[in-house]
Structure formats: C-alpha cells, structure tokens
C-alpha cells in the first residue's frame, strides 16, 4: 500500500469515527424533537451530502424534507417490477415538489436477470431478488452521501420497533436519519390530509405497504399493514433496513 493510500484510508477511518460520535449525541438530543427539527439538524450537518429514499408509496417524507431542504436528492429504486401506479406517483412527485429525483436501476434488467438466473427469481429466492434489485443498487447510490433520510416508523413492524431517530448505518458506514420514527398511523394520516400530500392510488385500494408488484398483495381490514409484502414467504424486510 502506498503512502497516499494509507493516508486516504486513515482519513476515511477518522471520518467514520467522527460520524459515529455525532450519531450517539444526536440520537439522545433529538429523540423527542419534532420531525422537522430532526430534518433541519440533518440538513445543517450534512448539507448536499444528505439524501432521502422513497418507495413512492406516498410523498410524506418528500414533503417534509423538501420544506426544509429544497432541491434535496430523492433516490428511487426503479426495480423493473413496480406497479404502474408507483411509477405514476414518482412522475407526479417530480412535477410537484422541489426535489431532484434520481432513478436507481439494478445492474441487470429484468430480462437479463431472467436469462442468467431463471425466471421468477422473486418467487424462488426473494432474498436474492431483493438484494440484486434493491439492496445492491441502493448501496451503490448512497456512496457519495454522508447521511440518508428514511421514512420507517417504529409502529410498522416488530423488526422496526427499536428504530432511533438518528442511527449509525454500520453496513454502509454512514448516518441514517429517521425523522418520523415515533409517528403513528394517525400522525401520518393527519399530516397528509393537512398538507395535501401526494399519495400512491394503491393506498386507497387495499395496499397500505407497496413494494414490487409480484411480491405485494392487498391487505384485509385488521391485518398488519405490512402483511401484504412477501405473503407466505416467511419474509418481512427487503434487506435495506436490516
């Protein structure tokens, strides 16, 4: 390893240590803060190296963040398997909000994946399909940033119950900000109604949690909102938030 490579490695390590120190104090200080204050802290701390991700189930997070940081980068994972309504929601978001939507595509098209790994990988090995079409592309897309904003909430599922408003994303070595982690479904509904937030029309057709079309079904009244994702496959997360 050359001297330049050693210095670069040490600089990255120092940066990671500095970021981890920020996370611990911010998580404590901001635990009871309003969502907008959490976003304001993130925007002030990370500037243009802050982005957010959106599945385009709705534009709640986009509305929140763009009011604090206009022009923010919004990463959308264009998996090749989305409902037409989800693509339409993405297009509407680009027109309505002051954001920069960046479409992130997997390294293989659906046809290429089918040829190389066989058709309907999502039904045979959903974990691998999610990794190839969501996790790996997002990991690549997040590399230029120091922090990303996510819309996950504690009440969505048991696997998310321990979510902090500011966390260290060890897998990606960056900061993860969850400004609505403490929100309930009532909080979400009230904000969207009060602010006229764009909503994916599938939300009104029995799809409270919207993923790729082959792996998402309608949810019956009283069911867990995420029970329609990978139903019958023993899977509850795509891997992005694990």
From TrEMBL:
GO terms for molecular function: phosphoadenylyl-sulfate reductase (thioredoxin) activity. Its main location: cytoplasm. It catalyses: [thioredoxin]-disulfide + sulfite + AMP + 2 H(+) = adenosine 5'-phosphosulfate + [thioredoxin]-dithiol. Binds 1 [4Fe-4S] cluster per subunit. The keyword Oxidoreductase applies. [4Fe-4S] cluster binds at residues 129-130, 212, 215. The active site is at 238 (nucleophile). Keywords: Cytoplasm, Iron, Iron-sulfur, Metal-binding, Oxidoreductase. Pfam families: PAPS_reduct. CDD domains: PAPS_reductase (cd23945). Catalyzes the formation of sulfite from adenosine 5'-phosphosulfate (APS) using thioredoxin as an electron donor. Belongs to the PAPS reductase family. CysH subfamily. This is Adenosine 5'-phosphosulfate reductase. It comes from Sphaerisporangium aureirubrum. The lineage of its organism: Bacteria, Bacillati, Actinomycetota, Actinomycetes, Streptosporangiales. The gene is cysH.
